[in-house]
């Protein structure tokens, strides 16, 4: 009996050889220097911050080298699969304009290196496993869960490194005849890779982020095919797929670095060249004074849907990630404000070697900047798109009178130093509600009076203003009139004079403006008061003043 008999018994219907597959997946014929990357999520739920971080690197390095960025669904862990996750993943990539060049989705395949869904590649894996069995580099293992648990307990008490290695790799010593007999008897088995490494030896591993590392050789006989469904494990599928699909750079989470020695060994067993690796850092956050890993379960900002729900412009999210991907991104962006992030030259060695710190305050700053530069038409469109999915109230406000809405959001916009108070579209409602009479009159609100709180004095100011001084025809005239009123009522119209001797006045022009502002909006801080008043118009101003007097 030979290894071939064993391989034929396990895979009787597999007739294609690995050479056949080599022919089916020829070189990609790309210009020299082109990099092929892939985003390879398991469809188990939302894309997380770490996932988008990787996809962004994949996309950037593929695009800047005229290479290929493809999407592969790694769905070999059927128990963890979540229905609809592929849709969420595709939606998120599309939302951020990280559209893969090759993918398979909704029954449609784009690209010649598919199938791009691992569960559809079973036959391919089987051919490759069959080959390994034939050359003696893989074998069936019949150890059940209890035996493996016992092995681990023994290793623990003996203080031996855990795992199926050396003398613990019992089934590696079964003869071909014994293995064949067990299979014929219907015993359950997995297939393990037969490692040839020595854990005491180190080898050089070049991680493009961390530089040269010296890792221990792998001596564990890793499971490469599970018994249920005969599906491959991640380790094996990674080797076969990234070889056949001609991935040149594998960008994946740091948690996979300890498995790299296994992968390298499997590439070697087939005589394939291994891809280059970039193991990405953990994404960290500041929690009080400590830094910790962002948690998928605890931190809502870990899920990419969080940013869409709150209405952050996609570019803000991308740029906030770029700043933690490469330490020199911000500097580059400041000197090249008009360039796209894809024009940035990514360098793996400029990635943080420790964790990458994600800061929501920074995201807000980036986002405020981006929104401040939008024209009123752009902000109108973007906010309406967002509201159509996420806010019925804002959508209704916008649609009731689009031009009025545009005028409101245009206050202090489209000018050299635009306002920067909107970080996300969900902020807008809270910044504009007072411009709508039905909300203004019906909302529970507190008037944020400041220095002047006396009712009679407030009424006197409002009456005097509406009777004699209101003039909205021009901003200079408007302001001049307010100053004239100040002089008339005993308030300083000139701030310098006021500061020299505050006791000579009842207050200043700033106090008067605040009274007008609070009376009209209930808020002590708003954008430009003249623009607010112009939009409200004299009649509505009068009505709002009357409400104060009555209240
Ligand atoms: N499916 C793996 C994961 O979701 C992908 C790792 C890789 O990119 O190779 O962690």
Describe it.
This protein is mostly helical and 551 residues long. The protein has four domains: 169 residues, Rossmann fold, CATH 3.40.50; 82 residues, Glutamyl-tRNA Synthetase, domain 2 (Orthogonal Bundle); 69 residues, no CATH class; 96 residues, Arc Repressor Mutant, subunit A (Orthogonal Bundle). The protein has 23 helices and 14 strands. A three-stranded antiparallel sheet has the order 5-6-9. α3 links the parallel β1 and β2. α8 crosses α9, α14 crosses α16 and α19 crosses α23. It is elongated, with a radius of gyration of 33 Å. The model has no long low-confidence stretch (mean pLDDT 95). It binds glutamic acid. The site of glutamic acid (GLU) has 9 residues, from β10.
Secondary structure elements and their pairing?
Layout: H1 3-10, H2 18-24, E1 36-39, H3 49-64, E2 68-71, H4 85-95, E3 103-105, E4 108-110, H5 122-134, E5 138-141, H6 145-157, H7 176-184, E6 190-193, E7 202-207, E8 211-216, E9 223-225, H8 234-244, E10 249-253, H9 260-270, E11 276-280, E12 283-287, E13 290-293, H10 305-310, H11 314-325, H12 329-335, E14 356-357, H13 360-372, H14 376-390, H15 392-400, H16 402-409, H17 428-432, H18 437-442, H19 455-469, H20 475-489, H21 495-500, H22 509-521, H23 529-550
Parallel strand pairs: 1-2, 10-11, 12-14
Antiparallel strand pairs: 3-4, 5-6, 6-9, 7-8, 12-13
Task: Give the N-terminus to C-terminus distance in angstroms.
Answer: 99 Å
CATH C-level of the largest domain: Alpha Beta
Annotated CATH homologous superfamily of the largest domain:
HUPs
Averaging pLDDT over every residue, what do you get? 95
CATH architecture of the largest domain: 3-Layer(aba) Sandwich
Shape: elongated
Number of strands: 14
Structural class: mainly alpha
Q: What's the alpha carbon Rg, rounded to whole Å?
A: 33 Å
């Amino acid at each position: 009996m030979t290894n071939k008999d064993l391989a034929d018994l396990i895979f009787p219907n597999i007739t294609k050889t690995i050479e056949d597959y080599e022919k089916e997946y020829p070189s990609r014929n790309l210009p020299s220097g082109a990099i092929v990357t892939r985003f390879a999520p398991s469809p188990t739920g939302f894309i997380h911050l770490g996932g988008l971080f990787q996809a962004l690197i994949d996309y950037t390095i593929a695009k800047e080298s005229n290479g290929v960025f493809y999407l592969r669904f790694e769905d070999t862990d059927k128990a963890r699969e979540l229905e609809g996750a592929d849709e969420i993943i595709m939606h998120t990539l599309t939302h951020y304009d990280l559209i893969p060049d090759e993918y398979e989705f909704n029954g449609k395949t784009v690209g010649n290196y598919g199938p791009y869904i691992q569960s559809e590649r079973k036959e391919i894996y089987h051919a490759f496993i069959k080959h390994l069995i034939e050359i003696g580099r893989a074998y069936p293992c019949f150890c059940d869960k209890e035996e493996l648990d016992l092995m681990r307990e023994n290793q623990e008490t003996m203080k031996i490194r855990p795992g199926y290695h050396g003398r613990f790799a019992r089934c590696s010593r079964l003869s071909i005849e014994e293995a064949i007999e067990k299979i014929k008897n219907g015993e359950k088995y997995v297939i393990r890779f037969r490692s040839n490494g020595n854990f005491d030896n180190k080898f050089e591993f070049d991680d493009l982020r961390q530089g040269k590392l010296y890792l221990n050789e792998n001596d564990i006989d890793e499971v490469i095919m599970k018994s249920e469904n005969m599906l491959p494990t991640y380790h094996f599928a990674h080797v076969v797929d990234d070889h056949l699909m001609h991935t040149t750079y594998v960008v994946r989470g740091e948690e996979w670095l300890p498995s790299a020695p296994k992968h390298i060994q499997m590439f070697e067993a087939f005589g394939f060249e291994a891809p280059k690796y970039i193991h990405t850092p953990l994404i960290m956050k500041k929690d009080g004074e400590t830094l910790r890993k962002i948690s998928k379960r605890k931190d809502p900002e870990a899920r990419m849907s969080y940013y869409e729900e709150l209405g952050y412009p996609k570019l803000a999210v991308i740029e906030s990630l770029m700043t933690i991907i490469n330490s020199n991104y911000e500097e580059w962006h400041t000197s090249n404000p008009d360039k796209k992030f894809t024009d940035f030259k990514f360098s793996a060695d400029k990635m943080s070697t420790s964790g990458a710190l994600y800061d929501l305050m920074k995201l807000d700053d980036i986002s405020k900047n981006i929104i401040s530069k939008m024209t009123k038409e752009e902000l109108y469109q973007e906010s309406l798109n967002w509201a159509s999915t996420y806010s019925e109230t804002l959508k209704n406000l916008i649609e009731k009178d689009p031009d009025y809405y545009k005028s409101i959001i245009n206050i202090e916009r489209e000018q050299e130093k635009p306002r920067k108070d909107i970080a996300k579209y969900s902020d807008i409602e809270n910044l504009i509600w007072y411009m709508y009479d039905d909300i203004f009159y019906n909302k529970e609100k507190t008037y944020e009076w400041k220095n002047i709180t006396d009712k009679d004095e407030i009424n006197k100011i409002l009456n005097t203003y509406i009777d004699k001084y209101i003039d909205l025809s021009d901003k200079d005239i408007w302001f001049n009139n307010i100053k004239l009123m100040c002089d008339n009522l005993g308030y300083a119209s000139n701030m310098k004079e006021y500061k020299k001797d505050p006791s000579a006045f009842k207050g200043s022009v700033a106090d008067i403006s605040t009274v007008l502002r609070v009376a009209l909006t209930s808020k002590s801080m708003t954008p430009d008061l003249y623009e607010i008043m112009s939009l409200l118009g004299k009649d509505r101003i009068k009505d709002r003043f009357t409400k104060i007097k009555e209240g």
